Each structure stands twice: as structure tokens, then as C-alpha cells.
Hints:
The complex is a heterodimer. Chain A contains no helices and 11 strands. By secondary structure, chain A is an all-beta fold. In chain A, strands 2, 4, 5, 6, 9, 10 and 11 form a 7-stranded mixed sheet that branches. Chain B is mostly beta strands. In chain B, 0% of the residues lie in helices and 50% in strands. In chain B, the strands form 3 sheets. In chain B, strands 2, 5, 6, 10, 11 and 12 form a 6-stranded mixed sheet that branches. A 4-stranded antiparallel sheet of chain B has the order 3-9-8-7, with no helix packed on it. Chain B starts with a strand and ends with a strand.
Amino acid sequence: DAGVIQSPRHEVTEMGQEVTLRCKPISGHDYLFWYRQTMMRGLELLIYFNNNVPIDDSGMPEDRFSAKMPNASFSTLKIQPSEPRDSAVYFCASSFGYGEYEQYFGPGTRLTVT
Amino acid sequence: GDSVTQMEGPVTLSEEAFLTINCTYTATGYPSLFWYVQYPGEGLQLLLKATKADDKGSNKGFEATYRKETTSFHLEKGSVQVSDSAVYFCALSGPPNAGKSTFGDGTTLTVKP
């Protein structure tokens, strides 16, 4: 399997612009997670899905952030409008289940908002 | 709620030194425990795991034992290499937070030749 695929790998945008990050989980995995990583705040869980349904979005920082999973092989994280403080590395991860099942992380999208 | 506390870094060692990174946890149930490693510019990847008390996870010379009595899962390696330089995350997963994992803050390891 190709692993978790994220695109783009790097994104540079200006403040106020809309940003869309994309993720393709590993086939057969029924959990999908979106994380944000910064030096200041470390690794933060933003939202996760089970069978395409959002289960917990309590980590989404504000209404500017939204995430969707229209089918089992695709998810998006959208920021509108973007702000400089959104600059971070965003990771998507998927897992076969929970408990004993590990998460498989994608390579991340490095977002820079100027 | 569940929490994971890791030894603060950064940790700097010479090649072939012994490594210990401490991890303790608080959980209401009986979680599975994990160590993930993150190399520069990459996502996290599983290093090892243990799913029940007294289990030992091992991989690439790293080991950790699930100690329920001390709620710990310390990572050890007998002889580190420069290529082990990375950030190491301890994590737990299991009910009642079904589905998501709780991660520690990460410990940065630098191994010098």
C-alpha cells in the first residue's frame, strides 16, 4: 500500500485566502484523524472520523476550520479565511480500528500563511 | 481524562550510549501503549507497542514494557546510533476515548558521533 497520501506537501498563501488540505487514507482503515503540529503547541488533534462520520471536532480551533470526509478514501481540511497563526504542519493519519491499532501518519502539509 | 507525561528533552547522547526515555500515563481503563518516532521532515511512525500489562514491545533494538503497577512505559535502547536522532512520542489508546489516542509532548533525542 502507498500509505497515507497528503497534498499538497507545501502550501504558501496570503492571509485571508482559503486553504484546502487533502488526504487519502489507507484502504480499509475506518478511522481518519487530522492533527496540527507547531513548535509552540506540539501535536494537536483537530478532528477525527469513524466510517466517514465526524466523531470529535472539539480540537478544531475556530469556525474558520472545517473538515469533511465525503467517502472512505478522501478527506479535506479547509481553512477560510487563513491567518498567519495557522502556519503549521498538518498531518492526516488513519487506523484500522482503535485501542490496539496504531495510527499511520501521512508526510504532512507544511502551511505558511504570510 | 487520559494523559501521558514524558521525560522533558532535549536529550543528547554520544553514539553507543544507553537510552532511557521515561513515560508515565493516567487512564481510566486498560489502554494500549505506543511509542512513535518522528524523523525530521516526516510524519510519526510506530516504533513499538504493547496491548496489555507486562507485555514488552520491541523493534530496531528499542524496548518498552507495559507496567500497570507503576503506570509506566519507558523506552530503552542499549546502544544508540546517530540515525536514532529523532523525536519520540509516547501515546495511549483505548476506552473510554474510543477511537483517538492521547500523545505525550515528545522528547527530542540527538545522538552525536
